[in-house]
């Protein structure tokens, strides 16, 4: 597939997701990065979003719970270029019933080439980068050209 450029604005749309065993870790990380996160548009799967908003006062647009389809909602937003960064603290040691949704979310984030933090260390790296506060360009699939070639 051909590619094209996508501009990610300085004010990012950031999705926050965490498995049950990782919610406390994500909450701690969010509290440590509260000022920086407050400058961006935040989304989260249901339970995580409600927890983070309650504990931090951040304005977070919640999706439904991950197992009920929230992971897929976030994935759809990524494919529509509505999410710029995914912070997903996932638990690789604990199987979850909606594991296919989790894999699909990580796959779609990779396809659309957005930055993905899967733990505290990678989140710290992404959010310490100067690019988190700047407009930047990423390469994404050129889906419009793909559709035109098919007709």
TrEMBL record:
Entry GO CC: cytosol
Amino-acid positions noted as binding substrate in the UniProt annotation, renumbered to this chain: 19, 23, 45-48, 65-66, 98
Listed InterPro entries: Methylgl_synth, Methylglyoxal_synth_AS, MGS-like_dom, MGS-like_dom_sf
Active site per database record: 71
This enzyme's EC code(s): 4.2.3.3
UniProtKB keywords: Lyase
Record-level Gene Ontology MF annotations: methylglyoxal synthase activity
Record field: catalytic activity: dihydroxyacetone phosphate = methylglyoxal + phosphate
Source domain of life: Bacteria
Classification via Pfam families: MGS
Gene Ontology terms describing biological process: methylglyoxal biosynthetic process
Annotated ranges, domain MGS-like: 1-151
Protein family per UniProt: Belongs to the methylglyoxal synthase family.
Function field: Catalyzes the formation of methylglyoxal from dihydroxyacetone phosphate.
Protein name per its UniProtKB record: Methylglyoxal synthase
